[in-house]
Specification:
heterotrimer; A mainly beta (88); B mainly beta (97); C alpha+beta (90); A: 88 residues; mainly beta; SH3 type barrels; five-stranded antiparallel β-sheet; B: 97 residues; 5 strands; 53% strand
């Protein structure tokens, strides 16, 4: 029934609409990344560009800037289209 | 080097294939390391190693000074099976070109 | 040009990315936080990786060097092209 609903947006379609724009990726565990989505596959492995990686460590928040990465989809928890609300 | 088909690395597991009967270094989860001769492996990276040195690293916090105490325990094992899912890294012996 | 063609030219799937980085210097970060820097020899669909001239960094400090290294794909968080900068946040 619900599969016939034309208004339903598949999760993969939502991600597809993010290609070319900023996306905020929250991993399982204390890691988050923000970057421009270039592409993804069926496992939601993602190619991201101009990435900022945030790691929460005992010493505080460690920030790493990366040109272009292939992110393993295995440990992704949440995707937020449009990027992080945090100011840079 | 690399003129024969057998010695080329086309996929990552070729690196393991080329290390058969050689001594390799294996880094495992939970701060465990192994050095031993690779007798056999499969696509999961389950491995059979011989004449193995196992190194276990533990970190304890001193009750009074709160300093980290790093301890390494070494032991020899004549023959063992490694389950592939615990493997982080495998490094073959240095091969000269 | 149609919008679809425009998009295709900027889209880079994981497969495209993997093709483009073979033989290049990369940083491989594991879920544990350990970094490996070296030359990417090859990789497969499990993200198993073979690297050359590999350096192991723990908390940004060089801990080990390996001539060749095989990294089991399940531990991989990301594979990055090598250029990058570091900053310690508050």
């Amino acid at each position: 029934m619900s599969s016939n609903n034309p208004s339903q947006l598949l999760p993969s379609e939502l991600i597809d609409r993010c290609i070319g724009s900023k996306i905020w990726v929250i991993m399982k565990g204390d890691k988050e990344l923000v970057g421009t989505l270039r592409g993804f596959d069926v496992y939601v492995n993602m190619v991201l560009e101009d990435v900022t990686e945030y790691e929460i460590t005992a010493e505080g928040r460690r920030i790493t800037k990366l040109d272009q990465i292939l992110l393993n989809g295995n440990n992704i928890a949440i995707l937020v289209p449009g990027g992080s609300p945090d100011p840079e | 080097m690399g003129s024969e088909e057998e010695s080329t690395v086309r996929e990552p597991l070729d690196l393991i294939r080329l290390s058969l009967d050689e001594r390799i270094y294996v880094k495992l989860r939970h701060d465990r390391e192994l050095r031993g001769k690779l007798h056999a492996y499969d696509q999961h990276l389950n491995m059979i190693l011989g004449d193995v040195e196992e190194i276990v690293t533990t970190v304890e916090i001193d009750d009074e000074t709160y300093e980290e105490i790093v301890r390494t325990t070494r032991r020899m094992v004549p023959f063992l099976f490694v389950r592939g899912d615990g493997v982080i890294l495998v490094s073959p012996p240095l091969r000269t070109a | 040009m149609s919008g679809a063609a425009e998009k295709a030219s900027t889209t880079k799937t994981p497969a495209d990315f993997l093709k483009s980085i073979r033989g290049r210097p990369v940083v491989v970060k594991l879920n544990s936080g350990v970094d490996y820097r070296g030359i990417l020899a090859c990789l497969d669909g499990y993200m198993n990786i073979a690297m050359e001239q590999t350096e192991e960094y723990v908390n940004g400090q060089l801990k080990n060097k390996y001539g060749d290294a095989f990294i089991r794909g399940n531990n991989v968080l990301y594979i990055s092209t090598s250029k990058r900068t570091l900053a310690e946040g508050a």
